[in-house]
């Protein structure tokens, strides 16, 4: 169960980084990156799916952490505001979506650092 927890956490982080790369679109125009940019929503949804799975395994494994809960909440809110912006096209939703993306990234880094034993 510990291996599954780690694998799901890594997959969550990878998908989040791929989704976050969308913010680099104005600066990098490489062909391979354009494919990643086009799949921004898919990577975000996968990050959330893997994050929820990671959460469920942590509950079953009795290793739930506050830093993980905060990270998951921020990840879900990022997705909610992203979907709302996608439907309504209101700039404040876009700003909140981008803000929560940064908050999620920071919280996941904190979660990894706090819960990694070297």
Topology of helices and strands:
Layout (H helix, E strand, L loop, with lengths): L1 H19 L10 H8 L1 H21 L5 H23 L2 H25 L3
Question: What string, H for helix and E for strand, traces the elements in order?
Answer: HHHHH
Rg, nearest Å:
15 Å
Q: Please tally the helical runs, counting DSSP H or I stretches of 4 or more residues.
A: 5
Distance between the termini: 20 Å
According to DSSP, the number of beta strands is 0
Mind explaining what this structure looks like?
This protein has 118 residues and is an all-alpha fold. Helices cover 81% and strands 0% of the residues. The protein contains 5 helices and no strands. Helix 1 runs antiparallel to helix 3 and helix 3 packs antiparallel against helix 4. The longest helix has 25 residues. The protein is globular. The mean pLDDT is 94.
Key words describing this protein structure:
5 helices, globular, 118 residues, mainly alpha
Please provide a brief summary of the model.
This protein is mostly helical and 118 residues long. It has 5 helices and no strands.
